[in-house]
């Protein structure tokens, strides 16, 4: 209706000027004598939507409470302000803004600012990978292209280490500085006639698809990946590609696996880690879930600061299973639990190459360790180590001794055991899992004091981080040496090991 009205007004203006009486004749004159501005989608009146999928704080934004977040989003210089989320360090699926945009201007200018509300003065939080200089380097500036539905600028879809639709304040290297670093997850899209997320222009001029027919799920090149995923990530949906052998970000998830996990926020150009947790109940199920929800948020921070997104499944996909209680879980018991609750007795389970697997059991010895569910030797932290177990007995003993909460102890143990799944293991480096290094009366406690890693028994319950190698003699750079492929299944030959 908007397009038709504008066109009629132009025609009527010509009529008044020329004195003509036939509208159709003057419309033809408009076509012949005037340049008609291009309409990038003649089927709909265009609008744009920004979904805020998540906001998380890394730093202590407020000294005495959690932050009071709110957003300012500028779309073509028009400001939209969100509600304020009080006293929370994280919030999900929290806000959506939709507004009309010109149909004839290709790029939409977008700025996203994250603020902490304060009584005296609001504080801007850092969600940008740019260096902070005065009031600059905190917000995200984006240009959204309505021809393609792809955006660029401070956030982009191919090769952005922080991830497409994600801003990260620690991307400027401020991991160990307090610069009000936060992260934000978002999506941007426009309306289209057939609601398949493919703009009219790209369907008509590039893909040759029908803009009035929903093409979701279509796989014209028969490479196993539908058109909408290939379009979003810059692959050609008209040319067959071997996605099972393409892994742009080197996180050991090929494109097919990235597609399988796309609904959980994976990104083929940014590293992702997936971990499933099943457990024996030691209080009640609701209490256990609440503990694991807290663990889920705490454990993300060290990974997310370095643009490795940690997905902890406690029931969102296939995790969170309650396993039968057992007062002493043997190693054989653990392998049986792996087969029953993780792969569901399917040796070809799709989860095997995507998820790590963790168990919380009543009792086992040792109280926590990594293992392989299906690669020989199952014990020993060799390649293929994809699982770990933690006993409630160890959790409770450490919680009482250190006067810490269960979620605190569980989080630190999870990160330690995940380190083994990532190739950090006894003897590599020397300070990892060294006996006696947690005892001030032992030489190893002092010898490896500079190895400030959760993998060092001295710091297992005190530093939620792997070391970056910057602390002096006998330190080791865990982050540089973690191997995201370590957990993958390998065909091992016991004779040659």
Euclidean distance between termini CA atoms: 73 Å
Please write the CATH class name of the largest domain.
Answer: Alpha Beta
Number of helical elements: 11
Query: Structural class of the helices, strands and pairings?
Result: alpha+beta
Look up the CATH topology of the largest domain: Collagenase (Catalytic Domain)
Q: Could you give the count of β-strands?
A: 15
Output the radius of gyration: 27 Å
**What does the average pLDDT come to?**
91
Q: What string gives the helices and strands in order?
A: HHEEEEEEEEEEHHHEHEHEEEHHHH
Q: What share of residues is helical? A: 10-25%
- By CATH, the architecture of the largest domain is named 3-Layer(aba) Sandwich
Strand content: 15-25%
Notes on the protein architecture:
This protein has three domains: 2-33; 47-190, C2 domain (Immunoglobulin-like), CATH 2.60.40; 272-481, 3-Layer(aba) Sandwich (Collagenase (Catalytic Domain)). With 497 residues, it is an alpha+beta fold. It has eleven helices and 15 strands. The strands form three sheets. Strands 2, 3, 5, 6, 7 and 8 form a six-stranded antiparallel sheet that branches. Mean pLDDT is 91; it is low at 1-24 and 30-36. Helix 1 (2-18) crosses helix 2, helix 6 (285-304) packs across helix 9 (406-421) and helix 8 crosses helix 9 (406-421).
